[in-house]
Design goal:
This protein is an all-alpha fold. The protein is 59% helix and 0% strand. It has one helix at 12-40. The relative contact order is 0.09. The chain crosses the membrane at residues 12-30. Keywords: Membrane, Transmembrane, Transmembrane helix.
Length: 49
């Protein structure tokens, strides 16, 4: 998949897209954990930051 040389086939745009995708997944997981924590506490109190 990763080949050295001018024709590696992996551009900066592909890497940027992958990083943005990973960041979105991580944020979604953190947000989901906060929602689950709020539901377990009966929905009362401050939302997880």
């Amino acid at each position: 998949m990763f080949k050295s040389g001018p024709r590696s086939g992996i551009s900066a745009n592909t890497i940027t897209t992958a990083v943005v995708g990973m960041t979105a997944i991580v944020l979604a997981v953190i947000e989901a954990r906060g929602i689950i924590r709020a539901l377990r506490s009966g929905g009362k109190g401050q939302p997880a930051v």
